[in-house]
Amino acid sequence: MKKVVLYTDGACSGNPGVGGWGAVLMFKGFEKRISGAEQSTTNNRMELTAVIEGLKCLKEPCEVEIYSDSAYTVNGFNNGWVYGWEKTGFKKADNKPVLNDDLWRELLSLTRIHCVTFIKVKGHADNEYNNLCDNLATEAVKNLKNKL
Predict the structure, then answer these.
(1) Catalytic residue set
(2) Which of 2, 11, 26, 92 is deepest in the core (most CB within 10 A)?
(3) Could you read off the pLDDT of 107-118 as tens digits, one per residue?
(4) If pLDDT is split at 50, 70 and 90, which confidence band does 123 have?
(5) Threshold 0.85, pTM exceeds
């Protein structure tokens, strides 16, 4: 199975507000940089979208190390929240729907294609690729704002 490293980040100008996401995929010394933006979203939606869009770039099942500064995203998998939500139809203990359930469902489906490991990195620190993803996300926000 091919080994891929995926760095991701999301950003939002206002929360909710204009949001962007960035991702960098690395495979055998090659890098692919992707990004995008949405007009009305939240930071958490952009964090999840970055991982989803990165995984959607893979053309076959891979072993993927996913690096994110989003505790929301990483803990969703590493603490098993997403699996519990799946069992309850994506309802919380109070029977209200889980926020961003559409994205959690899509991400869960994508993680079942690949062998994924989520790794939490410190945001806005000295991690070169996390900073690069942050720049991709914030540039996507700026570009969208300039078009509005």
Answers:
(1) 9-10, 47, 69, 124, 134
(2) 11
(3) 999 999 999 999
(4) confident
(5) yes
Q: Tell me the longest C-alpha to C-alpha distance in the chain.
A: 47
| CA 96, chain centre distance (Å) | 23
Q: Which residues pair with 5 in a beta bridge?
A: 26, 65
CA distances, 33 to each of 72, 83, 148 (Å): 23, 30, 24
Token digits for 111?
């993680």
Closest residue by Cα to residue 66 from 20, 16, 38, 24: 24
- Residue 20's pLDDT band, with cuts at 50, 70 and 90, is very high
